[in-house]
Write a structure and sequence with these properties.
binds erythose-4-phosphate; alpha/beta; 18% strand; TIM Barrel
Amino acid sequence: MKFFIDTANFDEIKEAHSWGILSGVTTNPSLVAKEEGISFHDRLREIAELVDGSVSGEVISLDAEGMIKEGLELSKIAPNITVKLPMTPEGLKACKYFSEKGIKTNVTLIFSANQALLAARAGATYVSPFLGRLDDIGQNGVQLVAQIAEIFDIHQIETEIIAASIRHPQHVVEAALAGADIATVPFKVLKQLFHHPLTDKGIEAFLADWEKRSNK
Ligand code: E4P
């Protein structure tokens, strides 16, 4: 499973990129709205220049025509821009259009295996099932990822699964075990993935022993 970062904050992206683990970035209108002093297109441009991988920018139109217009503008920003589209009939019309043009798409707001299958058949490059938001309403987000992975495997579907709406480190390991190709992870959770008390304790012990050595 690869890692994308789920943020529009450039400092967070720069830091995670410096760790050498990033394969891409996802943004959404709520994440972009938190960023002040820069336009959406300029932010996508700077992210796409830094990160050598898929950078999702989401459309806000509700009709296919509007989505296509916005998506074409987004795709001109950089060759690694992925057009993020909502899981609706209009979104899938736009998905089909972009897929025929060879422009990458990420169909978002996936909450059922049937939605993922429909998006894949419309030529989606990625589908994004939302784990955390399903857990919030008492359903099992990880189980959905496992179902989609099994269906894509049985039918040899190449669309990649991005486990999204990740809330904690356990989601990450469970998404990997369930067969997600990618997890898009908020910066806070990415940092949590590094930590284990025995790692910290081990470093402390090594340093203490090093200080105590006799052959200084
Ligand atoms: C990513 O593509 C999604 O937009 C994002 O993961 C949603 O996360 P949230 O449910 O925490 O808002």
